[in-house]
Every structure is written in structure tokens, then in C-alpha cells.
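Residues determine shape. Take a concrete instance:
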Amino acid sequence: MVLTVQIPKPSDSDKAAFIAVIAPMEGAVVKPMFSNIGAFVNGHMFAGLFGSDLGVKLLDADTMAELVDTPGTGPFGPAE
């Protein structure tokens, strides 16, 4: 069985806004990923675009629990 996932693509303005936020961060590099872009430090991804959605890696479960009820937040990436 082949699973096909439709990956949304960010607009040029989405990419420009993401790059503008990441560019001032020392050591951060923006790289293309699966028709989207991600931000990396020392080869480790810490943020990325999925279509127009921004995802960030959180340090701990407490931060995630605090944000889960914030409007506009949710899981990042393709629906399961």
C-alpha cells in the first residue's frame, strides 16, 4: 500500500517572513525541505514552514501544555 500525503507549499511572502525572522539568529541556517523550508542550528532543525504554518521545536512538555489552548496553535506537519 502506498500512502500519499499532500504537502502544502508556502507562498513567497511566507518564505520571506520566515527568513526575516531566522536570519538574525546566530548560527541559524535556512534550508529547503520537502517543498518547504526549515531552520537549522548545527544540523538540527528547530523551526520550519509547512505551507503557511510555522512550527517550532519546544524545549519541554510544560511549554507545549501551556500553548495547547492558545488560539492558532496545534500539531505541526501532515495530518495522520
